[in-house]
Write a structure and sequence with these properties.
By secondary structure, the chain is an all-alpha fold. The chain has 11 helices and no strands. The relative contact order is 0.15. Pfam families: GLTP.
């Protein structure tokens, strides 16, 4: 990731770097794109998106520290299992299926739980970015975060996580400051908006895969402990 930090210094925003790394090869027909997508490692893609999300949160500061720490722990758990056998655990489906068969998928330290919460964190971020891009919405960032949190993370949080969120909410920066942090030094707001739209399109199939396997095994409603 050090090379990516150098690219940030050259003017690329974190979102632009993530978009370039996750973009599919040159456009083709739907069958071609589907084949290309199947060759990708969804586990690696989830890790890449999550790591970029951590760097975005770093730029914001201590505001969402609890969320950042949670993402980092789950990233480490998936990295460890992937390091054991990169081929075997290349897909999220393979990881969840194995843990379901072993009867370990609901354990606190399972990779399945890591996938659940990483997917939820990415979904939270996706809805937050969509809220920021809604030019008709003049809400403050605090209001956008509150609305996004209520619909994506709150239903699955226990009282400890909810309390930590309430503390973090008091440190949320102004909307314009947050957007400026995401944009970096070289973008116009129109370019930033286009990058966000492209990135969200790329990320959606990843969320779809994670959600499909979790729903299949009734694991999509796991709550924090």
């Amino acid at each position: 990731m050090e090379v990516r930090r150098e690219e940030m210094g050259k003017g690329k925003s974190e979102l632009r770097i993530a978009m370039e790394e996750l973009s599919l090869p040159c456009p083709g027909d739907e069958d071609e794109q589907q084949q290309q997508r199947q060759k990708r490692s969804s586990t690696m893609d989830l890790l890449w998106v999550s790591k970029h999300l951590i760097h975005v949160l770093d730029n914001v500061g201590p505001t969402l520290l609890v969320l950042r720490q949670d993402i980092q722990q789950n990233v480490q758990r998936l990295q460890d299992v992937l390091a054991r056998d990169p081929c075997k655990y290349a897909s999220l489906t393979a990881i969840v299926t194995e843990e379901v068969e072993e009867g370990t998928s609901k354990k606190v330290n399972s990779c399945t739980r890591a996938i659940v919460w990483l997917a939820r964190s990415i979904n939270f971020s996706k809805h937050l970015l969509e809220g920021l891009l809604n030019t008709r919405d003049q809400s403050s960032l605090e209001e956008i975060v509150e609305k996004t949190y209520a619909t994506t993370l709150k239903p699955w949080h226990g009282w400890i996580a909810s309390a930590a969120y309430r503390v973090a909410q008091k440190l949320i920066p102004e909307r314009e400051i947050f957007i400026a942090l995401l944009m970096g030094n070289c973008q116009e707001i129109e370019d930033f908006a286009e990058d966000v739209k492209v990135l969200l399109t790329i990320v959606q199939p990843l969320l779809d895969e994670a959600n499909a396997i979790l729903v299949k095994h009734n694991l999509d409603k796991l709550k924090s402990t």
